[in-house]
Specification:
Length: 166
């Protein structure tokens, strides 16, 4: 991560933390292709334990089923990288972690695993909160795995901030 990227991430994490501190709400995550990257950014901020409930890093479909209660039919019908699975992941994390707000990320970070329908860089996000459920599919043409992971985690952070401030 470049110094400029570190500064951007730190600024966004500060805004996110302040939002949760000001409102006394809690946050949980369910990450797949980012492998906990967004969680580590949030956990790097001192004092986040007052709102950050934790994260489930679920790579395998069986883990998504067992821990996040993603129905098998959703994985088999839509694939692990899909808006329905991302939505079930966010809902499952909300239930499991007892958080007011949850966000999930599932995608194809590469370099392998892409298909014509879902090329490397395809990432699905879902956000659940009180009376709110949002789903977004994005394509990040970053090339390298770490770049796709960075772009995915940063986009998730932006999506969360945008939604919280609506």
């Amino acid at each position: 991560m470049t110094n400029q990227q570190q500064t951007l991430v730190a600024e966004r994490i500060n805004l996110l933390s302040q939002w949760f501190w000001d409102r006394g709400k809690t946050l949980g995550l369910a990450e797949s292709c980012t492998g906990g990257l967004l969680s580590s950014w949030i956990a790097s901020q001192p004092g986040v334990s007052s709102f950050f409930r934790g994260s489930v890093v679920s790579y395998a479909g069986g883990v998504k089923e067992a821990l996040l209660e993603v129905p098998r039919y959703a994985i088999e019908s839509y694939g692990e990288v899909s808006l329905p699975v991302a939505t079930f992941m966010a809902r499952g994390a909300r239930e499991m972690l007892g958080a007011d707000w949850t966000l999930s990320i599932t995608g194809v970070a590469g370099p392998d695993g892409g298909t014509e329908e879902k090329p490397v860089g395809t990432v699905c996000f879902a956000l659940c909160g009180p009376g709110v459920e949002k789903r977004v599919q994005k394509y990040f043409d970053g090339g390298a795995r770490t770049e796709v992971q960075f772009q995915s985690a940063f986009y998730a952070l932006e999506l969360l901030l945008e939604t919280l401030n609506e």
